[in-house]
């Protein structure tokens, strides 16, 4: 009999709360990752491209949430 008051489900017992990164940690990681990508793809022009990208999206590289 469907809907008889029983259900089958599960719950992860060891689940821990989600730890969010601070804006400073996000900014540091984003800049580091961008620099690594640029050094790999265009090592001679990495400084120039990095400055252009920082000027184009200052909020993102300051650790702001892009969804807001």
Brief descriptors of the model:
68 residues; mainly alpha; 0% strand; elongated
Largest sheet: none
Number of alpha- plus pi-helical segments: 2
Helical percent range?
40-55%
List how many beta strands DSSP finds: 0
Termini separation: 46 Å
Round the mean pLDDT to the nearest integer and report it.
89
Q: Supply Rg.
A: 22 Å
List unreliable stretches of 5+ residues.
none
The fraction of residues in strands falls at under 5%
- State the secondary-structure class: mainly alpha
The ordered H/E elements are: HH
Query: How would you describe the shape?
Result: elongated
Structural description of this entry:
The radius of gyration is 22 Å and the shape is elongated. It is mainly α. The protein has a domain at 23-62. The mean pLDDT is 89. Helix content is 44%, strand content 0%.
Give a brief description.
With about 70 residues, the protein is mostly helical. It is built from 2 helices and no strands.
Task: Lay out the secondary structure.
Blueprint: H1 23-41, H2 46-56
Helix pairs in contact: 1-2
């Amino acid at each position: 009999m469907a809907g008889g008051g029983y259900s089958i489900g599960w719950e992860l017992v060891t689940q821990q709360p989600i730890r969010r990164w601070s804006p400073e940690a996000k900014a540091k990681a984003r800049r580091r990752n961008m620099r690594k990508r640029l050094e790999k793809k265009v090592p001679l022009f990495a400084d120039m491209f990095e400055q252009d990208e920082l000027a184009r999206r200052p909020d993102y590289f300051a650790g702001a949430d892009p969804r807001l």
